[in-house]
Design goal:
Number of strands: 8
Radius of gyration: 21 Å
Shape: elongated
Structural class: mainly beta
Largest sheet: 8 strands, antiparallel, barrel
Strand order of the largest sheet: 1-2-3-4-5-6-7-8
Length: 174
């Protein structure tokens, strides 16, 4: 009987500890970033009587963001972030594939980072747009152990920057 009670107490303690070490939430982002890209043209390719040329575009984004509509105090409303991303884009005809890595850095110097993926839309020029997903793959400081996903839209503006609204859902395990 004493062993059963001890086992019950230990398993209850483990369950409480596990719950205390897991947090989850959502927040929305308002991003404004500026980009610097270089373009390389690939060879002309003939396929089915049509000629196309692959473009490879790469560069970086830098900007600022703030969080709002947060459901957890890990990322309070109006948290400000600096953001940076390295982007690689392939375009053949109208088909766009964008991949990259990013990081968001808060005022405490803590950061979360991840991967960007987009297979739709256009890039760079004013009026260009599209949507994709970013995957939060980790972080430092208070964001250590964070994972999540952020579907996003992107809208390129004539002034040379882009607006990127996103909604993130995340899970933090320590």
């Amino acid at each position: 009987m004493k062993i059963k009670i001890m086992f019950f107490c230990l398993s209850s303690l483990f369950s409480v500890t596990t719950l205390a070490e897991t947090a989850r939430g959502t927040f929305e982002f308002a991003n404004a970033t500026w980009h610097s890209f270089d373009k390389f043209n690939g060879p002309l390719v003939a396929e089915n009587g049509q000629t196309s040329q692959m473009e490879v575009i790469g560069g970086f984004h830098r900007g600022a963001a703030f969080a709002f509509n947060s459901t957890n105090s890990l990322v309070p409303d109006n948290t400000e972030f600096a953001n940076e991303a390295i982007i690689y884009v392939q375009r053949v005809g109208d088909s766009v594939t964008l991949k990259g890595r990013y990081r968001y850095i808060d005022n405490d110097g803590d950061q979360f980072h991840g991967l960007i993926r987009r297979n739709q839309g256009t890039i760079k020029a004013a009026g260009a747009s599209g949507n994709g997903i970013s995957v939060i793959s980790g972080g430092t400081g208070k964001y250590k152990g964070i994972r999540g996903k952020c579907p996003y839209d992107v809208f390129y503006k004539p002034q040379g920057y882009m607006v990127v609204p996103a909604k993130c859902s995340w899970l933090l395990k320590r």
